[in-house]
Specification:
Layout lengths: L1 H12 L12 H16 L2 H8 L12 H8 L9 H25 L1 H6 L1 E10 L2 E10 L2 E10 L6 E6 L5 H6 L2 H6 L4 H9 L3 E5 L20 H7 L3 E4 L6 E4 L6 E4 L9 E12 L8 E11 L5 E9 L7 E6 L2 E9 L9 E6 H9 L9 E6 L7 E13 L10
Parallel strand pairs: 11-13
Antiparallel strand pairs: 1-2, 2-3, 3-4, 5-16, 6-7, 7-16, 8-15, 9-14, 9-16, 10-11, 10-15, 12-13
Helix pairs in contact: 3-5, 4-5, 5-9
């Protein structure tokens, strides 16, 4: 079906560079510009060049805003303006890249096929154009779903009895949002990204606090007392999260499919302030992944820690009522502080090894925590940057 969609799209949509007003009949518009397709397709250099261009000829053909809305009909109004724009631009990029790649390898095939125009049907600012396409010695009846709300007739879907352009390219994305998955994961699935951004700390409030992060209500008093407890700093020409208050988990709800993106990546560093602190005998900093909550509401977690006593790649568990908590030491006393450390943890592999079964598909959240120092006259700060998840297993901080 994807091949047939590409053939039909190529034959219908790449119809020259003229602006088409909504006053012209859509059927006439398609017929008038169809001839320019064959001329444009012979110039492969132009096809390649336009892929990366800010303006593409398909911008005059597709209504990207309408396409994005119809990808997410149940959740569009709940998305922020920023995410609406992101999904709109991503839909544009995916369609342009997919179609251009097809045209560069299938020019002669498209040239051989035929179109039989039929009729159009307009109701207000919306309409349909009916036509037949001869492909593989078989006629396929096709509908072009169009809208004239921008003052020009533009296409937002191509349909036949066997396919819909929106469903082929973007099937199931709206359901992912309805199921509670984070928009970053939905975007990564939409674009088939090998690395999914969790937070690069580019967004912050007026006070510098990282957006979409928070703490437990019971910690409100400690946060107020600590002053600037969590904020985004950019003194080193890159933005990173700075944590100054100890004992308070900074949480980001982030539901994504850990089976799709099993490896968690981040960079962090510990810095001493006040008196120089000797290595402690306990956890100094941690990142914890909450996979789910059990029937008692207890979070099932794995923590990745910077430890003051235990050696790297030490694994241990803590037995609690109705739940076990597992910890992996990524940094130990031999690791110097004050320098950035890059980490990669195999969430899927670690969970399977500890719990004896694959992890649930959907995670709940992650949180960072700076832990108390042992000396009352010494304190630490934790910096974090570039938190992401990836499909490919990189060089793991602690290989199995």
């Amino acid at each position: 079906m994807m091949r047939l969609l590409h053939i039909i799209t190529a034959m219908i949509l790449l119809f020259g560079g003229k602006t088409v007003t909504a006053q012209e009949r859509p059927l006439r518009v398609m017929e008038k510009h169809y001839a320019s397709l064959k001329r444009w397709m012979t110039d492969t250099a132009s096809v390649r060049k336009e892929i990366e261009a800010e303006e593409h000829r398909l911008d005059r053909v597709f209504d990207w805003d309408e396409i994005a809305y119809r990808i997410f009909p149940q959740n569009w109004v709940n998305l922020t303006k920023s995410w609406q724009m992101t999904f709109t631009l991503s839909a544009r990029e995916k369609i342009i890249r997919s179609l251009s790649a097809y045209l560069l390898t299938r020019q002669s095939m498209v040239q051989r096929h035929a179109i039989r125009w039929s009729e159009d049907d307009i109701s207000g600012i919306r309409g349909k154009v009916y036509l037949g396409v001869l492909a593989d010695q078989e006629w396929t009846n096709v509908q072009l779903r169009i809208t004239g709300q921008s003052g020009e007739w533009k296409i937002y879907d191509i349909r036949s009895e066997r396919f819909s352009m929106i469903k082929i390219y973007f099937h199931g994305l709206d359901s992912l949002l309805s199921e509670g998955y984070h928009a970053e994961y939905v975007h990564a699935a939409m674009m088939d990204l090998s690395i999914m951004n969790i937070d690069s700390f580019s967004g912050r409030s007026m006070e510098g606090f990282p957006l979409q992060w928070g703490w437990y209500k019971k910690d409100d008093r400690r946060i107020r007392k600590a002053g600037e407890s969590f904020f985004i700093d950019d003194r080193d020409s890159n933005r990173y999260l700075q944590i100054r208050v100890s004992g308070v988990p900074l949480v980001k709800p982030f539901a994504y499919n850990v089976h799709d993106y099993p490896v968690l990546n981040w960079s962090w560093r510990l810095r001493s302030r006040g008196e120089e602190e000797s290595p402690s005998g306990s956890v100094m900093a941690s990142l914890t992944v909450i996979f789910y909550q059990n029937w008692l509401g207890m979070p099932v977690t794995i923590s990745y820690v910077w430890h003051g006593r235990d050696a790297r790649c030490t694994f241990y568990s803590e037995k609690q009522w109705f739940v076990d908590r597992y910890t992996v030491v990524l940094r130990g006393p031999a690791d110097r502080t004050d320098g950035w450390k890059n980490e990669s943890a195999d969430l899927y592999g670690d969970y399977t090894r500890f719990f004896g079964e694959p992890p649930p598909i959907q995670t709940v959240a992650i949180f960072f925590q700076l832990h108390e120092g042992e000396s009352p006259d010494a304190s630490r700060e934790l910096d974090v940057e570039d938190v992401s998840a990836s499909r490919e297993v990189r060089i793991l901080s602690c290989p199995p």
